Amino acid sequence: MKKYLNKKCLCLAGAAFLLAGSVTVGSAMAYFTTYATASGGAQISLGFTETVPREEIPIVDWTKRISVDNTGSVDCFVRVKIFAGEKFREHLDENISGEGWTKGQEPDENGYFYYYYDQVVPAGGTTENQLTAHIDNMESTEDFNVIVVQESTPVLYDADGSPYADWNVVLDSVRNSYD
Amino acid sequence: MKKIRTFLIKPAVLLSLAAVLLAMSTLGSARAALTYYSENYSAQVTVSSIGVSLMENGERISWRDYQHQNGEWNEGTGRLLQNLLAEGEKLAPGKAYPERLSASNSGQIDTYVRVIVYRDWENADGVRDTTLSPDMINLGLASGQGWILDENASTSERLVFYYSRILSPGQESPALCDTLTISSDIARKAKETVTEGENGYKTITTSYLYDGYRFNLTAEVDAVQTHNAQEAIKSAWGVDVNIAADGTLSLQ
């Protein structure tokens, strides 16, 4: 008899609990909601930068005419440094010039200056204006080298979309990657 | 005789208790039903027509609107960033592109809305890359427009914004962001190769680690009724909010 009462009691309590529960579920489902989604993206095409110097050296005026070709796939800025032997470098800087080229502010530890081309060099393009370096051969009969080193950095853009160069990307060129 | 009486009284008491319980639950549900039906009745024409649209630069991209006439959802899903670049244009890291995301109430009842923005990277093979920070996909957030960034719910990959004001039918919220910029830092990871040609010239080739990567942006706009807003938002979105007398929403 006791067992029967307990069973009955449990059944009734269970039924009451379910009824009460179902009331709560009903009110929880009464809120109105909706949503909408969309996705999209774009690929970053950084390509690669590659620059090759081009030099003309007419013996008649001992003037080296330098331009830099951008053979890479993205636009870049370029700069050039010109080295010469100790004997020939005394007046070298005074004789380097070119429209659209700007001499750097500070020399490197060996006293050489960078010359920066002001314009963006487009992929597949070249520096429209040449950098000229007149070499005073001091009437020497010895062979000597005037070495041109060019560097490039990809064009970056500020928030307004104006291009600028960040030469820190290239300064650490002895390493394989930049952090 | 005593046994019989006990036998009859106990179930009677239990049954009475159960009946009282049932009656109480019925009363409760009756109260809820009254409220429920009362709400439904007073707003039957409009309550069932909730709707929301995701807007990008003033264009409706995706939407989901309930149509009470036929009881169906009118919905459409578009693509974001379709007009980001002109034909043949390459994405320039560092440049700020116009990207104004907002929500529009395309239903017929007042709503509160929130927008969740997800951002991630895929490598050139289409595999998701979690090593590249989503922070490089930078949204220029608009300030003072009524959007609240839920910093507790946001991560580098997911940004959660709540619009603090009620959005009326037909109304579009101010944009939560103005611009999209891919950080120029992405071009800083580079590998340099130096080759010497026959003429003695050295050629330096710089290739980029993240060349060919793709960024993805997903935006989800959620809307909920303004009636009984605190409970509705808690139930639908799982967040606790305060609703001021003028309807302004703030996070708890």
Chart the SSEs and their pairings.
The complex is a heterodimer of chains A (179) and B (252).
Chain A: H1 2-28, E1 33-43, E2 48-56, E3 63-70, E4 76-84, E5 96-97, E6 101-103, E7 114-117, E8 131-134, E9 146-154, E10 156-157, E11 163-164, H2 168-171
Antiparallel strand pairs in A: 2-3, 3-8, 4-7, 4-9, 5-8, 6-7, 10-11
Chain B: H1 2-42, E1 51-56, E2 59-67, E3 72-76, E4 96-98, E5 101-104, E6 111-122, E7 137-141, E8 147-149, E9 158-163, E10 177-182, E11 190-196, E12 202-208, E13 214-225, H2 229-237, E14 241-243, E15 249-251
Antiparallel strand pairs in B: 1-2, 1-5, 2-3, 4-10, 6-9, 6-13, 7-10, 8-9, 11-12, 14-15
How does this model look, in words?
- The complex is a heterodimer of chains A (179) and B (252).
- Chain A contains 2 helices and 11 strands, in the order αβββββββββββα.
- The N and C termini of chain A lie far apart (83 Å).
- By secondary structure, chain A is α+β, with helices and mostly antiparallel strands.
- The longest helix of chain A has 27 residues, at 2-28.
- The model of chain A is unreliable at 171-179 (pLDDT under 50).
- Chain A has helices spanning 2-28, 168-171, and strands spanning 33-43, 48-56, 63-70, 76-84, 96-97, 101-103, 114-117, 131-134, 146-154, 156-157, 163-164.
- Chain B is of the alpha+beta class and 252 residues long.
- Chain B has 2 domains: 1-42; 51-200 and 207-221, no CATH class.
- Chain B is built from 2 helices and 15 strands.
- In chain B, the strands form 5 sheets. In chain B, strands 3-2-1-5 form a 4-stranded antiparallel beta sheet, with no helix packed on it.
- The N and C termini of chain B lie far apart (65 Å).
- At the A-B interface, helix 1, strand 1, strand 2, strand 9 and strand 10 of A face helix 1, strand 1, strand 2, strand 10 and strand 11 of B.
- Strand 2 of chain A pairs antiparallel with strand 12 of chain B, so a sheet runs across the interface.
